[in-house]
Specification:
With 378 residues, this protein is of the alpha/beta class.
């Protein structure tokens, strides 16, 4: 039994229900953008979210606070953070907990005994976000600490559903995206191409993502090298370096691509750069539902992507983009096809934008997520 300090306080009648939302960090990643959309479409007459951060604050903190939503940083070691989360939820009478990733799901264990409905998330290939060391234990905690598991890919949904355990119950809810206006896309395209010194007649291939091993930007460079044997495309990669940049720059130099491939670091809004692209190239080994692909589709930019996790949920091969093997030759073949056929780029881009506007509207996706709180009664 919880002691008196741990017992949830009664909520005054008519007040919104407190909801504890936990995320690892608030940097510029796609997961953080999804969180912001989720919070932006919250019915504040029903729910009173508080965002807890287990790692580092960053870019999205200011934007979330501007919504009038508190942001609280948990400090100390993992156990200390779990105690802080439990104490805060007990003090506020919180009955709903929403973990935003597989590696924050285990915090749900800290809320046992508090009558808290615990919703978790898997936003990458099933356990790809979890530490390699003691991964089996992490996986057990990530699944056992929650009652519902939000999966943004059908592949991950199926993997959890096939388990024989009674919980968590998996729920498939894809990511959402806010399509920019056509006029805005044109402005972003012109602005970024002028900034980069790239004419409108030059085929620009863009990659976006953290410079980490998972994203395989070494493969990205290989694809550009192969594609340039048939078409004079140029490439730009935007993303914060996590230890790979030096090797990538060495690879570019050895491939004589210094005039063709640029790494420009992190940028405030990747959607603007993506809108300047003729092709988005995703070369990752694993992903959940890649936000950069959604953003490219919403900007009518055709994508060439490796066959990872949720891309088949997003792209109809040959119609709204191209899905390739994790092989530079296969990726380059599709890049060359798009680079040499501007009408094909236009058609694929238009179909892609129509598809995401139909199935990935942010308000509808957020409403599905908030409805999971109501699922407690069932």
């Amino acid at each position: 039994m919880p002691d008196a300090a741990d017992r949830p306080r009664e909520r005054p009648e008519g007040r919104p229900e407190p909801v504890a939302v936990l995320i690892g960090q608030l940097s510029q990643g796609g997961s953080e953008r999804q969180l912001f959309m989720f919070l932006s479409h919250c019915d504040r007459t029903r729910w009173a979210p508080v965002v807890y951060v287990s790692g580092e604050l960053g870019f999205w903190e200011e934007h979330i606070r501007a919504l009038g939503i508190p942001v609280r940083l948990l400090t100390g070691g993992r156990l200390a953070k779990m105690r802080q989360l439990r104490a805060a939820c007990a003090a506020q009478g919180t009955r709903y907990f929403f973990s935003w990733s597989s590696y924050t799901n285990p915090f749900g264990l800290a809320l046992l005994g508090l009558d808290v409905w615990r919703i978790g998330s898997f936003r990458n290939a099933l356990f790809a976000d979890l530490p390699a060391r003691l991964r089996t234990a992490w996986a057990w905690a990530s699944l056992s600490a929650i009652s519902l598991a939000v999966c943004n890919s059908r592949e991950t949904y199926d993997e959890i559903a096939l388990r024989k355990a009674a919980r968590p119950k998996p729920v498939y809810i894809p990511n959402g995206v806010e399509p920019p206006a056509i006029d805005q896309i044109a402005v972003w395209r012109a602005t970024w191409r002028a900034r980069l010194g790239i004419g409108d007649d030059v085929v620009l291939v863009v990659g976006v993502g953290r410079l980490v091993r998972q994203k395989r930007f070494d493969r990205f460079v290989q694809v550009i090298e192969k594609a340039r044997k048939e078409v004079p495309a140029v490439a730009v990669v935007a993303g914060k370096d996590f230890g790979c940049l030096q090797d990538l720059e060495r690879q570019v130099a050895q491939s004589n691509l210094n005039e063709a491939v640029r790494f420009i670091g992190a940028i405030p809004d990747a959607r603007e750069l993506i809108s300047a692209a003729d092709i988005l190239l995703l070369s990752s080994d694993h992903e959940g539902m890649p936000n950069v692909v959604l953003e490219a589709m919403s900007a009518s930019v055709p994508s060439v992507v490796t066959r990872v996790n949720a891309v088949a949920d997003l792209i109809e091969h040959g119609e709204t983009g191209f899905i390739a093997d994790r092989d530079a030759d296969d990726l380059a073949r599709h890049v060359v096809r798009l680079a040499t056929d501007c009408e094909l780029r236009r058609q694929v881009g238009e179909r892609a934008r129509s598809a995401v506007m139909l199935r990935h509207g942010p308000r509808a996706i957020a409403q599905q997520l908030w409805a999971l709180c109501d699922a407690r009664a069932g």
